């Protein structure tokens, strides 16, 4: 069997009480069920000062840097805030260098009526600047709290699972192709 694709599943919210927990836990359960993938869940929270305004934690940043560097592919779970993505997610993308290049990025989005799709379109622009490629298939949850039960399971699990499977198939294709290409010639030679 081919070497599994290593996915970093990234939290797009660090808000206390975030709905992102529900989205990420669902996605992690689903991805864990696929032999073709290994999963690492990345929470940007440690990049931020404690409420006492303690300095940012450099060792936490180094830890995230190494884990993101090891990833073959990224899945970003993004909410929508004022028609865009969150400031903490932007801070993660601006703070951690060199880990995104020549790798694919997929999105699971959620929010109000738009299902987070406006945040996704803006993230595509940012990831292009980081030399990453974004996957067409998006799993989107409009009015997200209505789409999950109290235990955090989707109310229409077959549909959610089917959409995520399509996303993962596209992500696997790109991740495998780009991993091979990076091994043959370092992307740094053209970046
Ligand atoms: C300041 C703020 C702005 C928001 N703006 C939008 C928006 O533009 N579009 C939308 O669909 N939902 C919007 N929402 C709803 C959020 O997407 C929703 O509350 C989501 O659960 C936030 O993610 P989180 O709970 O994981 O932090 C907004 C929420 C907040 C707090």
From TrEMBL:
<dbReference type="InterPro" id="IPR050712">
    <property type="entry name" value="NAD(P)H-dep_reductase"/>
</dbReference>
<keyword id="KW-0285">Flavoprotein</keyword>
<dbReference type="InterPro" id="IPR005025">
    <property type="entry name" value="FMN_Rdtase-like_dom"/>
</dbReference>
<protein>
    <recommendedName>
        <fullName>NADPH-dependent FMN reductase-like domain-containing protein</fullName>
    </recommendedName>
</protein>
<feature type="domain" description="NADPH-dependent FMN reductase-like">
    <location>
        <begin position="6"/>
        <end position="145"/>
    </location>
</feature>
<dbReference type="Pfam" id="PF03358">
    <property type="entry name" value="FMN_red"/>
</dbReference>
<dbReference type="InterPro" id="IPR029039">
    <property type="entry name" value="Flavoprotein-like_sf"/>
</dbReference>
<keyword id="KW-0288">FMN</keyword>
